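Residues determine shape. Next comes a sample protein:
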Amino acid sequence: MTKETSLPARILTLGWPILALLVIWELVADLNGYTDLLLPRPFGVASYVFNNLAKFAEPTLVTVALAVPGTLLGLTVGCILAILVWYSSILDGLITPTTSVLQAVPVVAMLPVIGRLVGYNEITVIVIVMLLSFFPTFVLVLGRLRQVNGSSEDVFRALGAGRWNTLLRLLIPQAVPGLLAAVRMTAPFSIGAVILAQYLLSIGGLGQLITDSIVRSDTVTVWAIACITSIVSIIVFALTKRLEDRVAVHFK
């Protein structure tokens, strides 16, 4: 029987890399004599955040609120494209190269085009997140659709099941682990994508707060936003990883 790890030991195991990073951050700032204008101390940044929670709470909520629909839209588009590619070799020849090209185009290059089409507003941010999150979903779900056990598919054919019936009853359940992996990959990344789009477009959220802070040379706020972004992304990753672990076992 394995001994259950105590809660403090588990916290230490998971948290020591963050603690080590904070110590290195403090040492670099002290040993090089950096001022707060260049590199503020981590505990000073933490104190600033706790003393100004209202300043960061609303922009953080705005950023997360834009990341959620963009990610969901990207997951949906990725799944639909994967099913279409699985269904038709003709669509495979059209969709797969197009998705590869879109993935290779930098976000900065896409922003002016999307802005002209839908306007320089929150919809543009959602579209950007969708474009960045649909490709991992497309690849992972399509891979699972094509990895189905051949004997299982033969059984469905022997029972007279058509392609769409086979898709709904066999292939889509087989693809659920791929979809969950895509959620785990794209959800944390979407937070940074929203912030980048907000920063470039200056349309609110943490990205707008970064722009305003740079104009005022408010380095502490910029570092605070970087820390908040990291914490939110870690929390989102932990939640999606837990979801994947709990749900994926039912589809293996």
The chain has ten helices and no strands.
